[in-house]
Amino acid sequence: MNNFGLPEIENHEHIDELTGFLKLNGILSHIQSHGQEDEKAGVVIIYLNVMNFKTFNKRYGFAGGNEFLKGLAAEIRSIFPDELVARTGGDHFIIYGKSLEEKEILDRLSRLREAAVRHEKALPMRIKAGIYLASGNEEDPVVSVDRAKIACDDIIRVYDKYDNFYNDELDKKNELRQYVIDNFENAFQQKYFKVYYQKEVRAMTGKVCGYEALARWQDPVMGLISPVIFVEVLESVHLVHKLDTYIISQVCSDLRDDIDSGYSVEPISVNLSQLDFELCDILAEVDKCREKFDIPKSLLHIEITESAIAFGADFLGDEIRRFREAGYEVWMDDFGAGYSSLNNLKNYDFDVLKIDMNFLRSFENNKRSHVILAAIVNMAKELGIHTLAEGVETKEQYEFLKKIGCEKLQGYLFGKPKPVEDFDRAAELTPEFCEDYTYSYYYEAIGEINLLGNTPLRAKEMVVENNIPIAITELIGQLPQILYANDAYLSVISSLGFSSLEEINAFYALHSDLPELDKFVHAVRQAEESPDHRININTISNGSIVDNKIRFLSRHGDTAVFAIVTRNTSLNNQADLSEDLQVAMAHVFNQYFRVDLFDDYGKVDNIYLNANQRSVSDVENDAVKAVSYYAELYLVPEDRERFKKFYYIPTVRDRVKESGGEYLVDYFRSAMPGDSGRMQMYMILPFYYNGKWKYISCCRYADELKDDYLK
């Protein structure tokens, strides 16, 4: 006997043969006969729904599905040994227990999910749980089961919530659902359903480039009923297609009115439910509405939520293909909200990704969202898919999304959804605020350029490539050896006379005493001593000036590993500077430990560095800020203000003219560790090149200059 006082079940009609649990009629029979007594003992009802079970059956067959259910039943029996359990059909279970605290319930459910993984065969089977804690005043004890199921159903579409307790708020939502069921036919007849339109804005121009059509129910009794409620109810009673075709018809009617009235017209995207594709030929219905009002296909876009695609699988893939072959754009709505986003992109073709608004909710405080948004846009561009970000509310979000190349934006920053009658069409639907929709293909061509990619001008060929020459290099004792190099890096070493990694590694091993190699090893060790910063060093290899940027990664024993970006700056097609400038640089490289280039536009770039200093322009290339930053890092406090005045570029040519010479020279004391105030000479040499004034800045130690003169 269990703790319900129930003897071993003798009525086999009430037993589920697969799991050995009760059937639904068996547990309901027990509840009805023991209900009043059990309620007083603090009964808990847990309703379980195993998500993704249909997909499991398709992949592994009914035998595999049955094996999973038997395994799951064994785990339930182990974790809920004293509770009454029923399998109510398919993948649904009811657990009927007494005197369980909330924490214990949640702990047990967590253990159950962990145990269920053993039977999943690598296909995640999310277990949703609705929980009802009986109060003892239920008129019908079976109501307790209904409420547990209602709590479970309430989170079916919430991908990141697995447990849900029935409460008063859920009770009110349930009452509202019932109101929807009882009144939706009348709502259609009385035209309580309205279309609200939310603007879509082209990020590059700031002009309205489309709208999303959203269904709203304005009820005379309940007021504005949320689509979260009525769409779910209409789906549950298989009438959602009636709502969606009504909305599409209204959209086409409104478009026709705008066209006939001479207002600016933009494409409108309409949302379709998964059930639309099952309950009717939705493509035929869309065509019928569009043809009735003589609306071009280019003015209607089809949105399908990511969750619908996840549940619809192969069938929806065929339907998406039908729409696109018929000439409609198909958009994936709520991308990134959960489920199997990347699989959907791999398996189906979409014209636009609508990036879920949740990525922007933590935009200001969570830098990870910036990285993720940029990665999504970058990936979409490489796949040839356009992007729209939902939930834009601030100017900062707008500017960021524009910078990373997200093409369209939607959110309260541009206005809340509103019905046609609330638009001042004469003022809002004008060329001043709305783009000419016939330009959409023009802007889509612009949108194909990936502003985040390394090869933005190259046609998309689904080839993953990086044109930044990068290598992973080990330092084994004093010997550098390249572990990995991308194609761009191999091109660089080819320009230096090496045909392969093997050849350059062998060269390092044979010529470890070369001064440039010793200098390189020294720089690598400096990078390890400053793991938060990268080290810049220029070396000479086979007559070429080679720029190396080095970052320390890790060390194990005598072996350290580094990431290195290398460029042959002597090659015209890789250098940022002209041939004439490189000739000038070649004369000063051997005499100075750093060379920087300033211009009249207030910018500075480091072009040569052979010292334990940072390439300051990598941190800040504004000349004034860079000079101040350098002074704070590398000069004694007493010399810093004089140094800033010396490097105030707007006055350099006047000061040179006053001096009667061709350049400026001054001396400043070093604050570098180990220098002990060692005097350094700084020179600024202005020159006129290609219609612009530029300034070479050269630095060296003053005592080395003295030694040279003595020689």
What does this 3D model show about the protein?
- By secondary structure, this protein is an alpha+beta fold.
- The protein has 25 helices and 25 strands.
- A hairpin with a 2-residue loop joins β16 (470-476) and β17 (479-485).
- The chain is globular and about 105 Å long.
Number of β-strand runs: 25
Based on helices, strands and strand pairing, what is the structural class? alpha+beta
Mean pLDDT score: 85
- Alpha-carbon Rg, integer: 35 Å
Distance between the amino and carboxyl termini: 106 Å
Q: pLDDT under 50 segments (min length 5)?
A: 1-10, 572-578, 707-711
Count of DSSP H/I helices: 25
Approximate helicity band: 40-55%
Characterize this entry briefly.
The chain has 711 residues and is of the alpha+beta class. The strands form four sheets. An eight-stranded mixed β-barrel has the order 6-7-9-10-11-12-13-14, surrounded by four helices.
